[in-house]
Amino acid sequence: MIVVSLAIVGQKNNPLYIYCSEPENKRKFEYIIHRSLDFFEEKVNSNSSKETKSQQSLFLGLLFPTETYRVFGYITNTNYKLICILNDLTSKNEEVSKLLRSFHHLLIQALCNPFYITDEPIDSEKFHNGVLEKILN
Amino acid sequence: MEIYPKELREHPKPLIGIIGNNDIEEVFQHTEFHKLNFLHLKEIEELPLPKRKNILPSDNYHLPGLIKAKWLKKHRDYIPSVLINFFSANDLINNEKRITDEITKIKQKTKTKTRMYKFVIVFLQETNNTLTNETKEEKLNQIKKRIEIDSKQGNLFLFSLKEKKMSSQKLFTIINDLSERFYREEGRRVKKNYSDIYSKKAQPDLFTRGNFKCGFYSEARGDYKNALKYFNRSYKNLLEIPKRGFGLLEIRMIGFVLCFKMISLQLSLKNIGEAIFIFKQYTNNSKAYVQRGNKGELENLIISWYQYKLFAEMLEKIPKTSLSKKTNYWESIGFYYHAAANYSLERKNSSKFLIQKYQKEFSNCDLDSFNKNNNMIDFFFNIDNSIFLCQIIWRVRNNEDKQLEPKSTFKLNTSNTELSSDYESENDNNNPESNSNRNMNINNNDHDNKKTNNTNNKVNNNTNKKTNTSDKVNNNGNDDDDDDGHDDEHSNVEDNNKNDRNSNLVLIKENGKKKKKNRQTISLRNKSDKSTIIHNSTQNLFCFLYSEQQFNHSKEIIDLFTRAYKCYSQEAISSERLIHSISTRIAIAYFQQNEFQFAKLLFTLISKHFRKQKWWNELLKILIYSLECGNQLDDYNYFANCALELCIPKIGLPLESRIIIQDKLFKMISEPKKNNYFKPPIKFLMTKDFPLYDLIDCTIQFTEPTVYFNTPLISKFSLISHLPKAISLDQIQILFNLPVYDRVIMKSPINIPTKGKGTQNEEELKSKEYIITKSPFYFPNLILQPNKLTVFTFQWIASSAKKIVVKAVRVICGNKESGLCFEWVKFPKSINSPIYLKTFPSRPTTQILQLPANITIDIESPQPGLINEYFPILIKLNSNQDHIKNGNFLIYFKNHEKGEIYHQNTKDLLSKKKNKIFFKEIHPYNTINQVLFIKSPITGSFQLLIYVIYEHKLGYSQISKTEYNIKFSKPFLKQYIYHSLSKDLSKDETTVLLDKQFFFLNLGLISKTPIPININQIDLILFDNIGKILSKSFNSKSGESKLSTNNNQNNFFKLNDNENENGNGNVIEHGNGIEMEIENENENNEENESKNNDDNYKKSISIKQGEKCEVFFLINPYKVFGPDDNKLKNSKILPNKKEKKIFQTSKKVSIGDIKIQMIRTNPIKFYSYYTDYWKKKNFAFELTFKTSPVEFVRRKVTMDIDYPSNGIVGHPITCAYYLHNHSDRLQKIWLKVEQSEFFLYSGFNYSELVLLPRAIRKLIYIFIPKKCGKLPFPKIQFFQKETSQLLKESRKNYHIFVSPSKK
Q1: Nearest-CA distance from A137 to chain B in Å?
Q2: In this complex, do B615 and A14 lie within 8 Å of one another by their Cβ atoms?
Q3: Which of B255, B347, B857, B926 has the fewest other C-beta atoms within 10 Å?
Q4: Closest to B623 measured CA to CA, from B590, B588, B578
Q5: What pTM was computed for the model?
Q6: What is the DSSP letter of B1255?
């Protein structure tokens, strides 16, 4: 399971953090991330009738596949969106879900930082290192 | 869709060959004949026959090419399944032998060793034929038996023109059955050959071809399921073929054809999901067949673009109902168009890259020759040997599929069932298909030696023979090897193609050790055309690139993106962002096509979305394009907008680019361009559409999010300009939800941080203080440097108790030199600061300043206050030692809603809103007195809170908070009035009075008010001078029921000094009213003042609760009954006899109004502060009422007396008595004179008089006084005879002073 890109999108669909393993393809990944927000909306709207949201329901699963990548989504209760682009077409949902949950914990820590301004891009080094650690491991 | 070859695009139809030129229109009347294709053959010899090849079964044998391009076309258009020959039914009898020979010939011709054509001999039976059908059928059976026609091979059919429809239907059934049989047999034969001879694992290429053919035969006979099965097998076999470098593209293309065959079949069976699955599978598998290198990548891009576009078009042709619900990304047609557009975009970039790479060599080439000959197909041909590849790519690239369509077919018009022969000779030099067929024939063949010439090559043209100059190269179509050992002869078509060869490139592919050779065969005709020969791969590459260069990529991209956009817009899948990104691509494509106006429009629309959602990278891209659009269109404002937006750091433009843009921007602004100046001002109004980033960043920081009332609040307002040039700040406006900024008392020291480079202006500004009284705040000559933080510090004292919200911050700044002006508004959503201010006036305060001042508040008026009375409150502020200044003393009230508060000095009404009083300072050891008056129009209890607060910039002090309960009540006096002839109230007297009789009007007052009432003045105002008030007196006593007596009268009230001097006792006359005064303790002290003041304001009498007082008015009512009768008589010369004069005997009237004015009882200590205004108005209550009515009785006869006031002893005194008869009748009067010891007189003692109506009689008596002194007159009494009533005089006792005589 190779994470080629990870993105955190804010409550107002504004990008907060984008990690790209391939800087030369950053534009491409940004496009995919931006596109995936449509699928978030679609999935969230379709699940809105369900009253309770369990922890599992935060993980939206495979949003859409492209020819070379698979895009997974995770939405927090506060409407932060985590988008993970994988190079591995055979990756399992459980593994990805676990990975995204760990990113969610990192995000919470970053948001709790008193120096972080809401809705501004996350430029915390600690957060970035945490993301790298999770991805590389 | 049109770009896809027809033989691949459409399902094959059984091909039926018709021999001869018979008129056969009537035969094909059945509607189902459109399911068949027809081929016209003049003779049976034109039938292409398979040739036998001696190929031995071998495991090493591999195909030179997987599938020949012409194979499909050949079997669709040239090889008939059934041959039909027409004869006349009459010939059965007349020319039986000839017919038998012909049938035998056909039978022999159609039955070859490997292939068995089917045939149908149709005998047309005319209507006028005399022979019966039965005899003819017998004849047919005889012929069948004679020639031994197998029903599996052919049939004889008697077509009755009489019963056309029935016969036509029967004929169709026969033909269809035979056709099906033919294709089935062909399939079986191919299948048998492959399975018997070759190994599946070792030779998958052969199996690919075999299954493909089987699939085609199944498809031709309409068995789509079987066709799918064979195509699928063929595809699987294809994937097993080892990936050789040179064959990758061919394998991919064959896979492409196979998959699209399967897809079209699945779509025909309405299995859309299956079709999508096949496509996905194919796209995944085809990735393995991408050749490395630039060329390979470009090929891959072209093929990918093509396959996605084709698939999208195929899906689009499906009825919409079957694709209505799209729940999957892959089911969206837009997705495929979108993918095709993306590949097209990449292809464009890739070809551009290659052109640049080979620019030098490319420029040296003769590009015209490429254009003329269109020979770029050779490039592919050199790389790979696939005929299909050549065919497809060539067609894709040139979009000339129409020219490739076979024309030697019968097209059946199903509507009128007319069969038209559109057959045309393909001997056309300009036909591109001929080129393609030429290329198809160029197969490298490693079995050249084994080739055998076709013996049936009878129909070859002479020209063809001429072109076959080379023995080494088989240019004949019959040279093509077929893996089943057969080749078909269709010389009429293919051989003509040979004439068109301008150049012939033969590539001999090496298999293993074999070498690849290019052979050129230059046709005789085109030998002179020297520049068109392309003989090496490099040139082919250039040819290809040239073709790419000629291709309109942008148009294609726009078209595909537009199609994708339309599809996504129509589909149910939510794709808002996708649509936006597609729109961006479209806009860029328009931009690249130099359609800047439309591109600008699109960019403007799209940028809103990205700006709103803060996708800066996407926005950056759009802005750069927009900037260039503005530049190209000379739209300076638009350009400047984009440039400024790009300069904002958040956008993420690299610094170098930013500097370039800044320079360009200011150059454009400051310099004229094409006689066009930059149009100032540009307004950057950060509205909802434009709220995301700041040309000027602003933050407001408050010291506390919540502040208490009157707490100084420090706010820091920091500005940082991202504009590229310094601008002067003109004004800042902070907009609150309430206009509280009016109350801002502050000043603004300006702090510019030391981080930036100091300038002269900064130093100047530091020393300045701007006193701000009102927003907007103007800052003249303040310059905002780019990218430097400027901080303003404000101190506010919140003067409102309500919640304060900063709605927006507005900055107006400009650059006068350039004319650039910004109006910048920031809304609170983006203000990163606590912006809510709350004030809590009722909360206990903590920051109290220690002030050296004692504040006392006196309420001078006793409780309760009277309504409509000015209730005074004195507030005294004493300073012990210091001079208190630089602050505001604030007094304000609460809870006085029902009353009105007046300020003493200003006389202004302090309303509910403006309930505050300010005064600035207190001098040391001095006192400030503030007097307020409260006036209430209604009774009740009021709670009054008085706050005295000292405000200062450093803090504040709540000096006192006093709470009062003030009761306002109405002064209530119970009054009673009666009339009497004496002041002694103990005597009972009737209230019936005679006219002109003096009487007393007694006014009694009893106080019911809980506070003492000071009665200042009581007035009796008589109506119309009804009489005259002769005297007034006042009597009051504290007590309950009894009225006062004369004993205590003088102790109770004091008369006015002036009136005492008159010596009229306690009865005084002073106008119509009576004024009272009581003794006052302070009278002596204030004597001087009281003299100076108005007299009306010093005398009053107090009545406590339950006390009573009386006022007596002595009244002479002399005009109760109107004007005097005498006067009337005198005024008129002659009395009017008609006039009826009614003598009014009695009248009950109210004689006048009584007006009582009351003021408060206790004197006000601080009345020295009063002004004249207050003095005049200082009465509490005024009571006015009418007196109770009095009944006056008019007398009929009255008497008056006239006598002197003094006399002398012994001297006579004349005394006159006037008797007046008021009535209209005679009145008899008795007169009686009493004797007197003091006077002498003469006359009757008793006498009777008669008075005429309305007459006056004068009686004169002379009295001679005998003694001196004050002597009473002798009594003379007059009685009215009728009533024996004594006529009374005005006065009872008449006295005269008699002096002694002078001696």
Answers
A1: 29
A2: yes
A3: B926
A4: B588
A5: 0.50
A6: -
What are the pLDDT digits (tens) for B965-976? 777 777 777 777
The band of A8, judged by pLDDT with boundaries at 50, 70 and 90, is: very high
Containing B765, the helix (H) or strand (E) segment is helix B760-767
Q: How far is Cα B433 from Cα B1134, in angstroms, rounded to an integer?
A: 152
pLDDT digits (tens, 9 = 90+) for B1168-1197: 444 444 444 555 667 788 887 888 877 778
Q: Which residues of A52-83 are buried (b: 16+ CB within 10 A; e: fewer)?
A: eeeeeebbbeebbeeeebbbbbbbbeeebbbb
pLDDT at A82 over 90: yes
**What are the φ/ψ torsions at residue B483 (nearest 5 degrees)?**
-65, -25
Write the ipTM: 0.84
- B309 exposed, middle or buried (CB, 10 Å; 0-12, 13-18, 19+)? buried
B577: nearest CB among A26, A34, A45: A34
Question: What mean pLDDT do residues B736-763 have?
Answer: 43
Q: How far apart are CA B714 and CA B736, in angstroms?
A: 16
Contacts of A45 in chain B (CB under 8 A): 574
Give the model's pLDDT for residue B463: 35
Calculate the alpha carbon distances from B385 to B60, B72, B511, B520, B748 in Å.
Answer: 19, 17, 12, 16, 86
Rounded to the nearest angstrom, the minimum Cα separation between A39 and chain B is 7
Beta strands in B1108-1226 (DSSP E): 1108-1116, 1146-1149, 1152-1160, 1181-1186, 1190-1193, 1197-1202, 1206-1208, 1213-1221
Cα(B279)–Cα(B455) distance, integer angstroms: 44
pLDDT at B630: 85
**Dihedral (CA of B413, B414, B418, B419) sign:** positive
CB atoms within 10 A of CB B747: 15
Cβ within 8 Å, pair B618-A30 = yes
The pLDDT tens digits of the residues spanning B755-800 come to 333 333 444 444 344 434 444 555 555 677 777 777 766 666 555 5
Identify whether the C-beta of residue B636 lies closer than 8 Å to the C-beta of residue B628.
Answer: no
Q: Cα–Cα distances in Å, from B568 out to B283, B314, B1056, B1210? A: 22, 17, 109, 149
Residue B405 scores a pLDDT above 50: no
| pLDDT tens-place string over residues B620-646 | 888 889 888 888 887 777 887 787 777
Greatest mean pLDDT among B155-159, B375-379, B435-439, B957-961 = B155-159
Non-local CB neighbours of B899 within 8 Å, separated by 6+ positions: B934, B935, B936, B937, B942, B968
Q: Which residue has the higher pLDDT, B1148 or B1100?
A: B1148
Q: Within 13 Å and on the Cβ side, how many CA atoms surround B1191?
A: 6
In A, which residues are within 8 Å of B832 by CB distance?
Answer: 117
Pairing of strands B118-125, B82-88: parallel
The domain segmentation of chain A, as residue ranges, is: 3-136
**Interval B1028-1055 mean pLDDT:** 48
Tokens at B907, concatenated: 């006389």
Distance of CA B141 to the CA centre of its chain: 90
DSSP B657-677: HHHHHHHHHHHHHHS-BTTB-
Share of chain B above pLDDT 70, in %: 50
Strand B804-815, strand B727-736: pairing: antiparallel
Judged by a CB distance cut-off of 8 A, whether residue B1279 touches chain A is no
Alpha carbon distances (Å) from B225 to B179, B216, B315, B496:
18, 12, 20, 38
Q: CB under 8 Å to A104, separation ≥6 — which residues?
A: A58, A74, A76, A82
A42 touches chain B (CB under 8 A): yes
* Domain A3-136 in this protein, CATH class: alpha beta
Is residue B833 within 8 A of residue B701, CB to CB? The reply is yes
